[in-house]
Fold this protein.
Amino acid sequence: MVRPCQVVRGNEKGRVERAIQYVRGSFFAARPFTTLEDFNRQALRWRDEVAHRRPWPGDDSKTVEQAFEEEKPYLLPLPANPFNTDLVLSIRSGKTIYVRFDLNDYSIPPTYVGRPLTLLASDTTARILDGQTEVARPSPLL
């Protein structure tokens, strides 16, 4: 039976919240990452060697990996075109040639000081636009 849960009520979503707690405690706890590639490598290894080998909740006769393999034929395919996940923010510099994003200051040409601009940030780059015109492309994000 499906029972809707209230928004921001983690206590009503025990199974989902326990899974998040499991990942936080088992994978993220005290694990350093140096790059996104390092993070992905460690995450895949943890998935294969730890998470997939644990018993499936409610049926100790199979593992999480076995349950996933059973469900795989019923999953929908990924979309042909990936979704755009860039963050789009309206920004404006104060009296200086800098705009702040994600605790970093990025310089813009002096002619754009005080004007409304748009910042587009992906996982690897940040771009600052005036309408459709790119006015700055800071160094790649690390």
